[in-house]
């Protein structure tokens, strides 16, 4: 899956499911600060990612993510590893 499609899908569900202001989403923006999600929201996000991309993200994955670019890259790498 192309990165642009991953970004579009992720941004779409962040705006629609988590009510994140789309204008605040950028590659360099801090993921946790921008999203302002609680632990239950992160569980919901994991479920949405799995249903959209067929990959699972764990706690260790989220600890490594600082920016939205990190988030997209992690999903992209998980998809690539799954398809390898």
UniProtKB/TrEMBL annotation:
<dbReference type="InterPro" id="IPR009081">
    <property type="entry name" value="PP-bd_ACP"/>
</dbReference>
<protein>
    <submittedName>
        <fullName>Acyl carrier protein</fullName>
    </submittedName>
</protein>
<feature type="domain" description="Carrier">
    <location>
        <begin position="4"/>
        <end position="79"/>
    </location>
</feature>
<dbReference type="Pfam" id="PF00550">
    <property type="entry name" value="PP-binding"/>
</dbReference>
<dbReference type="InterPro" id="IPR036736">
    <property type="entry name" value="ACP-like_sf"/>
</dbReference>
